[in-house]
Amino acid sequence: MSVTDILTAPVGGPSLPQERRLVTAIPGPRSQELLARKAAAVPAGVGHTVPIEAVAAGGGVVVDVDGNSLIDLGAGIAVTTVGASHPKVVAAVQAQAAQFTHTCFMISPYESYVAVAEALNRLTPGDHAKKTALFNSGAEAVENAVKIARKYTGRQAVVAFDHAYHGRTNLTMALTAKSMPYKSGFGPFAGEVYRAPMSYPFRDGLDGHEAAKRSIALIEKQVGAANLAAVIIEPIQGEGGFIVPADGFLAELARWCRENGVVFIADEVQTGFARTGAMFASELFGIVPDIITTAKGIAGGLPLSAVTGRADIMDSSQGGGLGGTYGGNPIACAAALAAIDVFENEGLVQRAQDIGAILTSRLGELAKASPRIGEVRGRGAMVAVEFVVPGTIDPDGGAAAAVAKAAIAAGVIALTCGTYGNVIRFLPPLSIPDHLLHEGLGVIADAVAAL
Ligand code: PLZ
Questions:
Q1: Of all protein residues, whose CA lies closest to atom 7 belonging to ligand 1?
Q2: Would you identify the CATH topology of the domain 3-85+348-449?
Q3: What pLDDT does 5 receive?
Q4: Which of 123, 143, 294, 301 lies at 20 to 30 Å from 55 by C-alpha?
Q5: pLDDT of residue 1 exceeding 50
Q6: Which residue's alpha carbon is at the smallest distance from atom 1 of ligand 1?
Q7: First to last CA, the chain
């Protein structure tokens, strides 16, 4: 199949051949040309993981300009959960673009924004009255969640956790834990941000109660509940290493927040929308956040994010206090309504659980065979392996980097993460067929064996 065939193929992922196909080395000659132009035209700070020029994607593959077809185990960092070109999303985007591209919701409101808000108010955990405001990126949602919590409480301090990732804007850099590459040299950062220890069972050995006690004691002593507007946490940490907190940790933290008038914010930008085998990861831990931030998977690849929260908290900001030119753009909202239809009516929560069963069993076997894998963890279609120096829990970032590099060279998109860079994460589009998932995991197994 030539690139022209691919570009003129009928719309929709399933029309792309669902196969791993290498016709050149990665990167091929035409991809190399683009990467040379990128190096000359785009700043070095904007990196890339997979050295290709993408020309099409859908189902479980990303196709490059040289005709290579790579198995996608990353979904553009948890974004293309319904697939990179789901027919319903494509049709909704085309229809809305033909109707109008923008009016600015703060100038002339339109229905799709309100419908997305209604859907999020209905789908997010808890049956209390909720309201939703829409923005463009995950970081922007997090910024607004903190604004709203501060306004509501009249307090300023915010607590985030070790290994947290919340974005790259000034406030969200302050909330993000890892210095390199996210923060180093980019300060000074926003004030009144404090950091508490995360529950990381593989490394701290604490149960949920012990870990919560440790975090709450630090918050009480170093911040003081009376000064604290919000605690923000990813129910399963994403960039930090797919860290699943011990049972009870999140529930105790949420209870302490409720008892102390602190707004509990769940950042579900990465975990949201069926990714973890539940519509939202908070459900897996039995917590009902006061505010939940979402983005990524929400709109099938279009930039959209949301802050959904208790109606009284959300309504505490003054009229005109929340917004932005593009927030809740009509094309992004049309895409979100189509994606939400897919999540609800095409069995994606179940599909994430099925993918999770394959991931944990295949990766579990791999861990048994390799002393370099310290732990396999995750939920649903959000699973990772953590590499260690054999016989220890010392992080081995080199092993994770080598496996990811070998996988990409063999036509499998595998992403690393983790504070120590020693984790490979698996978060495929839920549209990936089983045979590609198995083939991709086989390539990973070969790469681990070759270490
Ligand atoms: N909160 C939990 O995972 C984005 C970062 C990619 P934006 N994670 C991917 C990178 O290196 O820039 C993320 C997240 C959580 C917030 C964000 C930020 O979302 O849409 O990238 O702003």
A1: 138
A2: Aspartate Aminotransferase, domain 1 (3.90.1150)
A3: 47
A4: 294
A5: no
A6: 166
A7: 34
